[in-house]
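Table 4 source record.
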Amino acid sequence: MPLKAANRVLVTQQPPARYWQEETDGEKKGAEDGGRAAEEEPRTQKPKQEEHQRDGKRFISGKSDPFPGPAPIPEDRLQKFKRKEKTKKHRRQHYKLRDIITRSEEASEMAQKQAARFDILLPEDAGFLEGDEEEDTYTISQEDIADAVDITSGAKYFNLKLSQFGPYRVDYSKTGRCMLQHSPQL
């Protein structure tokens, strides 16, 4: 459809072409380009490796994975985070509802497995210091405690040597992340 521009030049407007539609002027385009368009081959993407194909392969170092597949989750941990029983699905009617219920159950099952996995990684309950029968707990140094506990708790250990302006008071935030130290004599 010809259009008139402000400077009286006629411009033809072509409908937008879609990539899935074949060009009707393909031979003309090839002739205009000197045959380059006909010579080009369509580029294809390499197919992605599927997980089951990679399981049998070795790494660059030549070693194979000693623990193939996902980590096993103990059944008692899974039962701890179990949400509900699966619902009965209708056969014919409510196909959209059936699809929604199926997706919800799959998401619930995945969340149950993830919660069971992360529960293993959580730190244990807070403990206490228990000495022998005749040993007083105040004689145990913090270095001994830091060496005896797990790595994450041992990394939180710090030592303050405060010989001036004592006595000091210490306040922690609710989360235990921040500490405020103050002295009434300052």
